[in-house]
Amino acid sequence: VNVASRFILVGVGDELLALAADQVEAVVERAEIFVLPQLSPGFAGVVLYRGKPVPVCLAAVFQAGGALTAPYLLLGHTAYGLVAFPVDRVLTTVGGEMWEEIEAREIPPIWQAAWIRCQEGRVPLVDIERLLATLG
Amino acid sequence: MIDADRLKLVAGLGPLRLLFDIDQLQEVCAAGELAWLPGGGAVRLRESEVPVHDLAVRFGVPVVARSVRHVLIFHDPDRPWGLLVDDIVGVFPAESFILHEVPALLRNPDQDYRRLAVYQGQVLLCCDGIRLAEQ
Fold first, then answer.
1. Is A74:A85 a contact under the CB 8 Å cutoff?
2. In chain B, is it the N or the C terminus that has fewer CB atoms within a 10 Å radius of its CB?
3. How many Å lie between the alpha carbon of A55 and the closest alpha carbon of chain B?
């Protein structure tokens, strides 16, 4: 069993995802996405955050709800700086002792670090760095 | 006296806003007023044949009905060349723009731009005429 302080639960389409709260810089509402050409797959463009361009990631797990029209952008810390992920809903933050290692018999997506157990059920925990590595 | 080095031209291309150094430009023409050569890839300008590249094709901007397009004619010691864009938004002092490197995650070797500019809450692509001419 791992320990982390808090997680943020977000909704993408019908799915719920969890992110470690210390990986999240902010969640911004109705931010304009500036589409850019000639980008690698998995990226749409940038959003301005505090006057600086931040990449917008369209990894498959974040596309369920219509990524470019999603009402929120979650800004996550990565080794490359901030990256924005479109999300449809921001549910809540949950406490840390509710998560567990992935059960051995399951084959999770590469980006999934663990499961979170909480009031909403069992929610996959996203590892942003792993997610970005899948786009490479 | 106005210093052209201190001015930038902003052009539109579909949803994109493009930023050019004025000092790289020879002139700007309405596409419909130019004498296009058969095939559409060049115009005749003062007895010279000037190749024109369509940035919409290069940037993968979807084709839509565009009422008025413009051709940016670039200086070139050998032969001027042109870029087809949509509207001309305006000419502004260079200090109006805050320049940023393209974020590391978004860079790739084939990109025709290396920097982004922020102007009045909008993001623009800094286009380098010399780099575009090499393609």
1. yes
2. N
3. 7
- What's the pLDDT at A92? 75
Of B18, B27, B15, B19, the residue nearest B93 (C-alpha): B19
Q: Is B57 exposed, middle or buried (0-12, 13-18, 19+ CB in 10 A)?
A: exposed
pLDDT digits (tens, 9 = 90+) for A9-18: 898 888 889 9
CA B103/CA B97 separation, integer angstroms = 17
- Residue B60 burial (CB count, 10 A): 10
> Digits of tens for pLDDT over chain B (135 positions)?
455 568 999 999 999 999 999 999 999 999 999 999 998 899 999 888 999 999 998 899 887 776 689 999 998 888 899 999 999 999 999 999 999 999 999 998 889 999 999 999 999 999 987 778 776
Query: Which helix (H) or strand (E) segment is B59 a member of?
Result: helix B55-59
SS (H, E, C) A40-78: CCCEEEEEEECCEEEEEECCHHHCCCCHHHCCEEEEEEE
Chain A, residues 16-75, CB within 8 A of chain B, namely 32, 34-40, 43, 45-46, 48, 51-55, 57
Interface test with A, best of B19, B61, B112, B123 (most A CBs within 10 A): B123
